[in-house]
Write a structure and sequence with these properties.
The protein is mostly beta strands. The protein is built from two helices and 24 strands. Strands 1, 13, 17, 18, 19, 20 and 21 form a seven-stranded mixed sheet that branches. Residues 75-371 form the DUF4185 domain. Residues 1-26 are annotated as: Disordered. This is DUF4185 domain-containing protein.
């Protein structure tokens, strides 16, 4: 079982449990605006499998590869209902999917609420992923202590591997009312996790809550961050930290604009237009960098591909990989109530695999794998 190596401060943001179950958060309310936006956008998306904001480019297409979770697939691990599924290739060669709020029973809000949990594919080839194991064996265990007292939870924003070590970043508190974020380390391919550090929720105006890390070949990790609240407008901040120091908050160096120039160690400045952000994922791929995210208005999952962590994202084309639709009209890369969009390690820019979550009722809550083609870079 995982053990906690450092105490977490007492929470000050508890609230009454939501209507989805005796201890579950009221997540329908949180996603209501996103779902409404998806329905409204479906008409605009009809007949447009992918779009590029900016210069004319190749047509972006996509298709579902498979469901990764669901009662028939992950029910045997007491995890029939789960989401996010951030994929990370483990040092032992497997693929670990770190999932968010997870329930047993008949649907979302059922018994045995855990977050995060780890589901595993022993085959890490992007085209052959099948969940055939879980951290904890027949019952996927919570990877870190989280009692969900007062509706709190631990939502993963990123999981990644550096050499033989894995790292996991979590957002703690009642969902969208973050109390703090914390950072964990595993040296056994995600089986157990050791606490490293935490950051206050209000750091950098709250825009350092949701973090994602690109592992570069220059010895640095490049970190993009936003607020963790789909209803709040946030900038996108960039930091870097040496790959041997991600557990030291003082080692993070911001990128910002000051004195008429951009530079490291300036106060952090948003590197693209502020907006309402959903999940974000930042990765180094084949000598370039890819940022994927859930865009809230209009609701779709987008990508930007660029040469350097400090490239100008104000002018980099935003390419829609997943477009919204309504249940019963899903085809190609059109998905009802999509979110997530985490890049699968081992996939390439010409054939990008992503983990896409879906939730539109208490029995349609899952992680799926999609394949995207035609991205311009």
């Amino acid at each position: 079982m995982p053990e906690q190596h450092a105490p977490r401060p007492a929470r000050h943001d508890g609230q009454a449990p939501g209507p989805d179950g005796p201890n579950a958060p009221s997540r329908r309310l949180l996603l209501r605006s996103a779902a409404a936006g998806g329905v409204a956008a479906a008409a605009l998306a009809a007949g447009a499998p992918g779009a590029v904001a900016g210069p004319a480019a190749k047509r972006v297409t996509g298709a579902k590869v498979r469901d990764l979770t669901g009662p028939a697939l992950t029910g045997r691990f007491a995890a029939p209902w789960t989401d996010l599924g951030i994929p990370a290739r483990c040092p032992d060669g497997s693929m670990l999917f770190v999932c968010g709020d997870t329930f047993d029973g008949g649907g979302v809000g059922g018994p045995d609420w855990r977050s995060p949990v780890g589901l595993r594919s022993s085959n890490a080839v992007p085209g052959s992923l099948v969940v055939d194991g879980a951290v904890g064996g027949s019952r996927a265990v919570g990877l870190v202590p989280e009692g969900h007292t007062g509706g709190t939870t631990a939502i993963p924003s990123d999981v990644f591997t550096v050499g033989r070590t894995m790292y996991m970043h979590l957002m703690r508190g009642v969902i969208y009312r973050t109390h703090h974020t914390d950072f964990w380390r595993s040296d056994d391919s995600g089986r157990t996790w050791r606490y490293l550090c935490q950051w206050p929720a209000g750091l950098h105006g709250g825009q350092f809550q949701q973090k994602t890390y690109a592992v570069a070949d220059d010895g640095y990790l490049y970190v993009l961050s936003t607020a963790f609240n789909r209803e709040a407008v946030s900038g996108l901040l960039l930091h870097r930290v040496r790959q041997d120091s991600p557990g030291d908050p003082a080692a993070y160096e911001p990128w910002g604009y000051a004195g008429g120039a951009w530079g490291w160690s300036n106060p952090p400045t948003t590197i693209t237009s502020p907006r309402r952000w959903g999940e974000i994922c930042f990765r180094a791929i084949a000598g370039r960098y890819a940022l994927t995210w859930l865009n809230m208005s209009p609701l779709d999952i987008r990508a930007q591909i660029f040469a350097s962590p400090t490239s100008n994202l104000f002018t980099t084309a935003e390419q829609a990989m997943i477009v919204p639709t309504v249940p019963g009209r899903e085809t190609g890369n059109a998905v009802a109530s999509p979110y997530g969009g985490f890049i699968v390690p081992g996939s390439g820019l010409d054939d990008l695999h992503i983990a896409v979550s879906q939730w539109y009722d208490n029995r349609n809550y899952r992680v799926m794998q999609y394949r995207v083609n035609g991205l311009t870079y």
